[in-house]
Amino acid sequence: MVTPRQKREQPAAGGGRRPTIKTVAARAGVGRTTVSRVLNGSPLVSDEARTAVLTAIAELNFVPSSVARSLVTSRTDSIALVIPESESRLGSEPYFSAVIRGVSEALAGTQLQLLLILVRDQRELDRLQEFLTAGRVDGVLLVSVHRDDPLPGLLEELGLPTVLAGRRSAEEPLPHVHSDNVGGSAEAVRHLLARGRSEIATITGPLDMDVGSSRLRGWREALVEAGAPAGESLVAPADFTEEGGRLAMRALLERHPRLDAVFAASDVMAAGALAELRRAGRQVPDDVALVGFDDSIVARHTEPSLTSVRQQVEEVGRTITKMLFQEIARGGSARFPVVLPTSLIVRASS
């Protein structure tokens, strides 16, 4: 794994330190985003601000070689896969490793180098902005997108070719790839209804992510269509972690001790729910049927094995990479979404 490290400031001519974008911004009296826009030729800068930035650049002799290369449209032959998550989440969630495999497959046979970048806090976001503004990569793949995530907007401002795995909302302007989360979730709930289950709860992913809200929407649409209960008390938000699934299952059992089915928006959360059901003395599937989402390795190794909505995660990785190739080659013309189909894999848990 290669992560960007902020270059140590080297002595500049005259004994000082080599200036950074932060230094330029401070001298010009503007924000770092404004400096980034000026360096990338964005029209979203006032003449006054542009003059201040260019004056500061001249006074500070701020011309990193990587910026100089980018200004003459030279290529770096590298792309960044940016994941705004912690190492623990990256290691425990099979989704990320599958995306990385897909990206790596799409890069095989090319000359492009892949940089994997985790962004866990504001300090690392600032470092990433410095790194990207310096023109170190030709494009960015962004995975695990939240509604208020500043990264997509920053990438648009920088003018970097960018493709998302997922989206911030149905109005996402950047090119992106996502699974049919609504349809897959609805299929899971219809399966539970067909098995005679009548009180079907759901454990959602984070609702500030389109993937979380879309899977909740699929659950609700299928229940409303069938005239089954779909009240808020049957909804337990979680965070795509096993512990989150366990805690959400506990809350659902307290509110609905007679529930007979649960749709969890990920296999990892379903595994946590399964552990909590076992602790509460509820048998799966006799007392409570359980369905997950992803059809990851987790689904095949629970006891009982987990019915799950299969999504083509490696294909997500391959597709976003191929789309990024088009973005880089055509200068940002591939502004379209791709929706990959899902399918229900029925196992013993339902």
Automatic annotation (TrEMBL):
CDD domains: HTH_LacI (cd01392), PBP1_LacI_sugar_binding-like (cd06267)
SUPFAM superfamilies in the record: lambda repressor-like DNA-binding domains (SSF47413), Periplasmic binding protein-like I (SSF53822)
Domain named HTH lacI-type: residues: 19-73
Keywords recorded for this protein, A-Z: DNA-binding, Transcription, Transcription regulation
Secretion signal, residue range per the UniProt entry: none
Alphabetized Gene3D superfamilies for the sequence: 3.40.50.2300, lambda repressor-like DNA-binding domains (1.10.260.40)
InterPro entries (alphabetical): HTH_LacI, LacI/GalR-like_sensor, Lambda_DNA-bd_dom_sf, Peripla_BP_I
PROSITE patterns xrefs: HTH_LACI_2
Molecular function terms from GO: DNA binding
Pfam families the UniProt entry points to: LacI, Peripla_BP_3
Database matches in PANTHER family: HTH-TYPE TRANSCRIPTIONAL REGULATOR GALS, LACI-RELATED TRANSCRIPTIONAL REPRESSOR
Official protein name in the record: LacI family DNA-binding transcriptional regulator
Organism of derivation: Streptomyces johnsoniae
